[in-house]
């Protein structure tokens, strides 16, 4: 199956889920370096992502703009999407797999 394109959205809504998502993404990249991976963080995972950056997986992060606005924070250097739920739904509509961390 290694010749089948692999695209996975890993959803992280909590700080603990963000840690799991980062580990999952690292493990997937090791096993399938060609895989396309997104970590979509919303709710409390957004603050955790900002407070505990990770240079290996931060390029995969997509932070919920609604959560950032609610927190009154910005995310310089990170990808911000309008809404985490919308980003996940659009990715699934495009054929991406979904996993909640």
Structure description:
- By secondary structure, the chain is α/β, with parallel strands linked by helices.
- The chain has a single domain (7-100), classed as Hypothetical Protein Ychn, Chain: A.
- 42% of the residues lie in helices and 23% in strands.
- The chain is built from four helices and five strands.
- The chain has helices spanning 15-31, 44-51, 65-71, 84-93, and strands spanning 7-12, 36-41, 61-64, 79-81, 97-100.
- It has a five-stranded parallel sheet with strand order 4-3-2-1-5, with helices on both faces.
- Helix 3 links the parallel strand 3 (61-64) and strand 4.
- Helix 1 (15-31) packs across helix 2.
- The mean pLDDT is 96.
H/E element sequence: EHEHEHEHE
Write out the CATH superfamily name. DsrEFH-like
Number of strands: 5
Strands across the major sheet, in which order?
Answer: 4-3-2-1-5
Terminus-to-terminus distance: 23 Å
Count of helical stretches? 4
CATH architecture: 3-Layer(aba) Sandwich
Q: CATH class, anyone? A: Alpha Beta
Q: What do the pLDDT scores average to?
A: 96
The general outline is globular
Tell me the Rg in angstroms.
Answer: 13 Å
Helix fraction by DSSP (H/I, runs of at least 4): 40-55%
Strand content: 15-25%
Features:
five-stranded parallel β-sheet; 101 residues; Hypothetical Protein Ychn, Chain: A; 4 helices; alpha/beta
Q: Can you give me a brief rundown of this structure?
A:
It contains four helices and five strands, in the order βαβαβαβαβ. The protein has 101 residues and is α/β, with parallel strands linked by helices.
């Amino acid at each position: 199956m290694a010749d089948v394109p692999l695209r996975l959205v890993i959803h992280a809504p909590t700080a603990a889920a963000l840690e799991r998502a980062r580990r999952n993404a690292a493990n997937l990249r090791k096993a399938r370096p060609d895989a396309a991976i997104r970590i979509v963080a919303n709710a409390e995972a957004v603050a955790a992502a900002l407070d505990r950056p990770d240079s290996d997986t931060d390029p995969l992060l997509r932070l919920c703009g609604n959560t950032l606005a609610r927190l009154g924070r910005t995310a310089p250097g990170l990808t911000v999407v309008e809404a985490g739920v919308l980003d996940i739904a659009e990715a699934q509509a495009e054929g991406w797999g979904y996993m909640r961390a």
